[in-house]
Amino acid sequence: YDLDPVIANLNEPGVSRYVRASFTLEMSPETDEKKGAAFLDEKKPILTDMLFVYLSGLSLRDVQGDKNLKSVQSCIRELFNEKLFPDSKPQIKRVLIKEFPVQ
């Protein structure tokens, strides 16, 4: 499931830095594709808001290097699963980065 790109200022005092991030969500194989997409379409504004808030709390150091990007992917997956599926098995298997330029 493709999310719309999010542009967020990074948490860098005294310097204006931002990231334009775009992600694809890989859903669990048990998830019905049409129902899953419809559910995520309905929740897209919430997901966009959560991404914006999460990314705005990161520093430049937090988004540099493969280890840190993998941590970002993992945190987003956990955040989304906790919010969308609080009382059931997590349905988002992976968060894939489509674009992540930082300026």
Plain-language structure description:
The structure is a single chain. The chain is elongated and about 45 Å long. Helix 1 crosses helix 2. It contains 2 helices and 3 strands, in the order ββααβ. The protein is 42% helix and 21% strand. The mean pLDDT is 94. A 3-stranded antiparallel sheet has the order 1-2-3. With 103 residues, the protein is α+β, with helices and mostly antiparallel strands.
Strand order of the largest sheet: 1-2-3
Shape descriptor? elongated
Distance between the termini: 26 Å
Low-pLDDT runs of 5+ residues are none
Structural class estimated from helices and strands: alpha+beta
Largest sheet: 3 strands, antiparallel
Query: Strand portion, in percent?
Result: 15-25%
Treating each run of at least 4 consecutive H or I residues as one helix, how many helices? 2
Average pLDDT: 94
Based on CA atoms alone, the radius of gyration comes out at: 14 Å
Task: Find the count of extended strands (DSSP E, 2+ residues).
Answer: 3
Helical proportion, percent range: 40-55%
Order of helices and strands: EEHHE
